[in-house]
Amino acid sequence: MTSAPITKTRAEAGALPVLGLLAAMLSVQVGAAFAKGLFPVVGAQGTTTLRLVAGALMLAMVLRPWRVRPSRAVLPWLVAYGVTLSFMNLLFYAALTRIPLGICVALEFTGPLLVATLTSHRARDLAWVALALAGVVLLSPFADVRQALDPIGVLLALASGGCWALYIVFAQKAGAELGGRTTAWGMAIAAALSLPFGLTDIVPKIAEPHVLALAVIVGLLSCALPFWLEMMALTRIPARVYGMMACLEPALGALIGFLFLHERLTALQCAGIAAVILAAFGTAITARPPVPSPA
To answer: Is 147 left (phi over 0), alpha (psi -120 to 50) or beta?
Structure first.
């Protein structure tokens, strides 16, 4: 008589982490859409600084990183983690001023895809690399003359993906000692490093209520909320499930860009995004290590 309720409870318990992870990915993309609304006011660099500062303050209040101080051995890895986090955001938002959100996310996703492939050391993963490269070619500025992409925007997104790849390596090194507080420390370092780039754009506008409101929304949706949801999900689902779900991010970016920013993609660009998603999905189900997210 009691088996049905127990089964239902277990099913719900298994579904909730997956829904939480999906909500985290949606939150990041919606946060990016709100961030793009700040570009005309404070520019891409000012938006990056506001996002990192707001996110760092929120994570500090929740995680209280000062309770675990980094040792001298881990400090270089932590600084490197914060540096890559800062430049990953600066490059991503700079790319977002030039190319659509979905394409930007897909190109950036090549970074963790490369890390997952290189750490696998299996010949079969060459097929996923080839598929991802095909997707990048379809997303190149010269693939579709009807809606050519800005080549600088493409290069900036790829550079952000390179920072994401380094971010994964440094996060693993620093996280071995600091655990979940690694992100709070790294976000604080990234916020401090971003100040010289965006402070002059922020100062004239910081007192305006709508700028502060957007900064809080972007910090909440892009940093604090997805990080909390992701950490809750990762303790309850296998790493492989996480890796497969993370492959949805480029598609979610394209969807949010269409719904919120009215960005339209050509058939070739959609095919390029699909190729990157399929390559990432294949890597996630065949490679042993998971693909971490920069939330």
So the answer is: beta
Q: Which residues, other chains included, contact 92 with Cβ-Cβ below 8 Å and sequence gap of 6+?
A: 104, 108, 156, 157, 160
Confidence of residue 212 (pLDDT cuts 50, 70, 90): confident
**pLDDT tens, 146-194?**
666 888 999 999 999 999 888 888 888 888 888 878 888 999 999 999 9
**What span, in angstroms and rounded, lies between the C-alpha atoms of 9 and 5?**
6
- Structure-token match 């932590």, residue found: 78
Tell me 72's DSSP state: T
The Cα–Cα gap between 117 and 158 comes to 17
Distances (CA, A) of 233 to 9, 23, 149, 227: 17, 10, 36, 10
69 DSSP assignment:
P
Listing DSSP states for 176-210 in one string gives: HHHTTHHHHHHHHHHHHHHHHHHHHHHTTTTTSHH
**What is the pTM assigned to this prediction?**
0.82
| 80, 170 Cβ separation under 8 angstroms | yes
